[in-house]
Amino acid sequence: MNQVMKDLLKLEEELQFTKFSSEDALNLGLTFIKIAKELNQGGIGIKIERNRQVLFSHLMDGTMVENAYWYDRKKNVVDRYNHSSKFVEEMYKDMGTTFDKSSLLNPEDFQAVGGSFPLIISNVGVIGSITVCGLTGELDHKICIDGIREFLNNNK
């Protein structure tokens, strides 16, 4: 396991919730919107699910309908692997291949690039996904991580 993968697993250990309500999803989604506006990188799409139920979904100005397909493709990776889409991307790189070449999953339904993170409840496990899309995989991942961290720090 390479260092990037180890660092991504540490994030999954760090960024866990003690509870997660519909109100939490709303406030987390609004946090992502605030961060995207501060970065002034254009609009993002956001989808937050708990137990396959959509609690928050938003496409900012500057996005298009394709963004909804992108966040679904990323979140499907989290639903399948119970790890961030960035971790899964790195896992395949570490094996000397790519997700598209070797996962045997339909690329129309699954995309392993940064931007989707497991919704993890401490002492419970993965109960959903938190997804940001619309920029590069690296920026989507950064907004996702920064938003979760900010939300958790503000709700201690």
Structure notes:
The chain has a single domain (3-154), classed as 2-Layer Sandwich (Beta-Lactamase). The chain is globular, with a radius of gyration of 14 Å. The protein is of the alpha+beta class. It has helices at 3-14, 22-39, 65-81, 85-94, 99-102, 137-154, and strands at 45-50, 53-59, 116-121, 125-133. The termini are far apart. Helix 1 (3-14) packs antiparallel against helix 4.
In short:
By secondary structure, the chain is α+β, with helices and mostly antiparallel strands. Helix content is 51%, strand content 18%.
Structural class: alpha+beta
The value of Rg in angstroms is: 14 Å
Strand adjacency order, main sheet: 2-1-4-3
CATH class: Alpha Beta
Ranges with pLDDT <50 over ≥5 residues?
none
Beta-strand content:
15-25%
Number of DSSP E strands: 4
Mean of the pLDDT scores? 95
Indicate the CATH architecture.
2-Layer Sandwich
CATH superfamily: Haem-degrading domain
* Total domain modules: 1
Q: Could you say which overall geometry the principal axes of the C-alpha atoms support?
A: globular
Distance between the termini: 32 Å
SSE order, as H and E? HHEEHHHEEH
Instruction: Output the number of helix runs.
Output: 6
CATH overall fold name: Beta-Lactamase
Characterize the biggest β-sheet. 4 strands, antiparallel
Helicity range of the residues? 40-55%
List the helices and strands and how they pair.
Elements: H1 3-14, H2 22-39, E1 45-50, E2 53-59, H3 65-81, H4 85-94, H5 99-102, E3 116-121, E4 125-133, H6 137-154
Helix pairs in contact: 1-4, 2-6
